[in-house]
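FIELD: query
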Amino acid sequence: MQFSWLLDLDGPRSAEPCCDTVTLSSARRLLGEGPVRWAAATAGAITRNIIGRVAESMVGPTPFETLRRTAEAVVLICLCGLADAGGTDGGESERPNGRSAPYGVPREGVETVRDCVRRGIPLDRVLRGVRLGHAFLYRALRDAAPGGELPGRLTEMLFEQADLLSGELAEVYVAERDRWEESEEAARCRMIEAIIAGEKADPTVAERILDYPLGRHHVAVILWREGHADAGPRPRLIAADLLDAGGGDGLLQVAVHASAVWIWIGFDVRPDRVRWPRSLPDGWRAAAGPPSFGLPGVRRSHLAARGAARIAATTLADTGVRDYVDVRTACLLTGDAEQARWYVQETLGALAAPDDWSEQLRDTLRCYLASGRSLKTAAEQLAVARNTVTYRVKRAGLLLGARHLADLSEVRLALEIMRFPDVLDRGPADRPGDGPGPMRRMYVRAGLVP
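FIELD: result
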């Protein structure tokens, strides 16, 4: 075999493939497990490279996974095409995208193109991402090749594949753009975006386009998927389950992505508290806003859900719906993550350390102060002995020092922020700059970036 070293490629055991089962099963038959792991690890690096270099990039957990699945499928198709050309079987064989042609846009790529069209990403940006991805793949293969040099024929084939992919992607993009611009779904998206942006909208016209009564109370939900492409049911089925569990009187769904949906549940009578399912299907995350009335309430509840989603995205333990009511203080305090980080460090000092013991002290002190300094209530909430609470509170006080103990209101705010410490990892570079592109604007609106 001319390129037999391709079958010796391998990646870390932790590199979990994420593209669909059809792509993976075909690639495993042709290449084996090692090259599939190498493709998964390389695709992750390609995705991060594209996001770092394309201004209108896939920001946020859901679009990152979509782009990573596409990159992984493309890498696998490339490897299979190169391996076949090098003489693995001497004949025609199945490719990972289910086609007999040597190359083509994988299923995952079509999903990414649809996402870009919905977000208004121009075709030239999409093709630039393709060029960046293939340049990265070329360097990765070159580094893995014997002697650090790629044979001329293999280099030529890689460029041919990039040209073929770019051409087919352009065709898919144009067809999807034409279909999208004429669809009712696009009109619904444009209307809901205008409402969320605070633009004036005629309620009668909005109701007709959205097919949803606006003169009621609304609870907004942002639902998105993380992880494997084949994980769980479709978002519309989950939305119906949320409606049933919450006891609402109507439902509005706007698909902002193949794996993300904006939802509004309508209530004729304002609910005191919406009941949510205890958990969602594996791979799905959700965040909800508070009940709000009328056309302004559609925007108000969604913006709050966006804040709750920002908190939920940093909390891996969340398996149900993260309700804004439970995290509204943290949402307010962490709107500027950098300043929140300064506040915590200046207020808590050594008590803000990231170790487990400091976390126990913070949780105990927070429960103690929230209960009106009741040792009994704090012990019950934490399921520990009263003496344990007493000891931890004293230790926390020693770390805080007398200056901060004099103003416990600031300490309580800092402890509330530290309930979600991963939110503080965001810095200025994570925030949209002036004049963000359409994709970034969409995911700011989606609540998946601040």
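FIELD: remark
Residues 4-181 form one domain.
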